[in-house]
Write a sequence for this structure.
């Protein structure tokens, strides 16, 4: 067996905030007690577990005994087979109950860390990385960005992105630099171009890339293995830390047409699995495969980053969500689904979302693409279809001449028309997400694309996460509104 490569020292990426952050002295004392349970502790002001008004927690969860457990769960409704995961003060699960409900280690319960490490071992190759539990990906990303952001730094991200994350870092002085994205995800050549031509007058060259490789939100794009390798190679050459935000990893699909009973193909190889330096920080969540209200996920990172993250957690959110940790420990433990059952569930979930995707695409073809005013690619993962609206076919579409200075200026009225389309949908009872809400917040002075981002915002994001009834009701409205919108010349009906 060949030994795993040693990670390189990446501490120069840490922010002044991170370096200035001290260890929470109270947490240090708690750790002494946790590591030596025989010590008599008069140290901590935690409520004693005998006063928690909870004797037992029963989670009644779907059975994963069938081949397609999600289909069974949906079709049988209240009579679908279930299993009870019970954690009680009165049996051997007492320790789990008491420790999960107490103030805990910032990294998470040791049992929960074991569970997510087992998930990592099954789906990724990351022998040297370590895990930290989080309150979901939003929590994880904002913490990682703060761990790395020196005010005035420039960070890279997909030009259309899950904007709340970059916005949070903007408030910490990060300037975002958009990288072009197409139907195959982030374009490596564009990443390289930005880094190779970086003007030092703009400050330090970007040292962090935030990206979503599978079923990217909002574009639905998935990076091919080849692009992943190219991106990692560029990250090595330009010393970039990659924040791999991958909430849709477990929602990957086959091509349309195949009737999925169960997803059998391999899940895509993550950027984490390519990482030999320790420069990929991978962010996972239970939000899309269990329930978002669990507020539970995990970071997989270089041990040095783990240490700083735990320090941060110890001085902020304290520890991950106790009830959620009990659920995953029991669910993946010997009395629950175990890892094999978890795999069956997520593969069956893939099949369910694939059916939803194909259902939405069929409606889209019938009612929207047929208008000749919009088109969409087939997403290989995630929850979204990125609909391109052919604004240039609109009777009031205007393309202004380049301004004399040659600087990038808004050359079309795409934003105005897309706003009108959004309003027209609302007036007809349909809400869609306009691409404008996903634009990476970046300084327009440095937008050196052939056309400015506003001119490329002729997209809307439509989700297939909802019910078939919602899709069947909504897509015909979109088709109708598009037809009326492209026929009429007045801004509102
Ligand atoms: C790309 C992306 N990152 C992060 C999140 C937030 O995930 P969580 O619920 O785990 O905080 C979402 C949720 O929609 C998302 O699409």
């Amino acid at each position: 067996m060949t030994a795993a490569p040693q990670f390189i020292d990446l501490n120069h990426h840490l922010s002044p905030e991170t370096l200035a952050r001290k260890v929470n002295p109270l947490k240090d004392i708690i750790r002494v007690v946790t590591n030596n349970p025989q010590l008599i502790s008069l140290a901590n002001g935690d409520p004693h577990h005998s006063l928690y008004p909870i004797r037992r927690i029963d989670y009644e969860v779907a059975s994963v005994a069938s081949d397609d457990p999600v289909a069974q769960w949906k079709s049988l409704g209240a009579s679908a087979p279930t299993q009870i995961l019970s954690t009680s003060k009165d049996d051997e699960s007492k320790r789990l109950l008491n420790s999960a409900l107490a103030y805990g280690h910032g990294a998470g319960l040791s049992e929960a860390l074991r569970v997510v490490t087992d998930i990592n071992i099954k789906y990724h190759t990351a022998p040297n990385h370590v895990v930290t539990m989080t309150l979901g990906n939003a929590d994880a990303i904002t913490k990682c960005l703060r761990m790395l952001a020196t005010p005035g730094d420039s960070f890279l991200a997909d030009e259309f992105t899950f904007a709340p994350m970059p916005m949070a870092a903007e408030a910490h002085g990060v300037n975002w630099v958009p990288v072009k994205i197409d139907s195959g995800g982030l374009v490596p050549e564009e990443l390289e171009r930005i880094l190779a031509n970086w003007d030092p007058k703009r400050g330090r060259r970007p040292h962090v890339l935030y990206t979503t490789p599978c079923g990217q939100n909002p574009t639905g794009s998935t990076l091919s293995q080849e692009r992943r390798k190219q991106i990692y190679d560029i990250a090595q050459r330009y010393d970039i830390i990659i924040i791999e935000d991958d909430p849709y990893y477990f929602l990957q699909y086959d091509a349309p047409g195949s009737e999925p009973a169960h997803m059998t193909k391999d899940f895509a190889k993550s950027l984490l699995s390519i990482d030999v330096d320790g420069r990929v920080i991978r962010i996972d969540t239970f939000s899309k495969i269990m329930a978002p209200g669990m507020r539970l996920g995990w970071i997989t990172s270089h041990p040095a980053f783990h240490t700083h993250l735990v320090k941060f957690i110890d001085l902020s959110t304290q520890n991950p969500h106790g009830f959620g940790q009990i659920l995953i420990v029991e669910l993946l433990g010997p009395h629950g689904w175990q890892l094999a059952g978890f795999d069956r569930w997520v593969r069956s979930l893939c099949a369910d979302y694939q059916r939803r995707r194909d259902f939405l695409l069929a409606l889209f073809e019938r009612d929207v693409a047929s208008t000749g005013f919009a088109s969409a690619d087939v997403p290989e993962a995630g929850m979204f279809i990125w609909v391109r609206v052919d604004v240039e076919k609109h009777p009031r579409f205007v393309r202004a001449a380049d301004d004399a200075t040659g600087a990038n200026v808004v050359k079309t009225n795409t934003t105005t028309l897309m706003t009108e389309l959004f309003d027209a949908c609302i007036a007809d009872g349909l809400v869609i997400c306009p691409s404008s809400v996903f634009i990476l917040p970046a300084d327009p002075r440095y937008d050196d694309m052939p056309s400015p981002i506003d001119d490329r915002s002729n997209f809307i994001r439509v989700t297939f996460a909802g019910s078939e009834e919602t899709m069947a009701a909504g897509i015909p409205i979109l088709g109708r509104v598009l037809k009326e919108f492209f026929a009429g010349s007045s801004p509102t009906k």
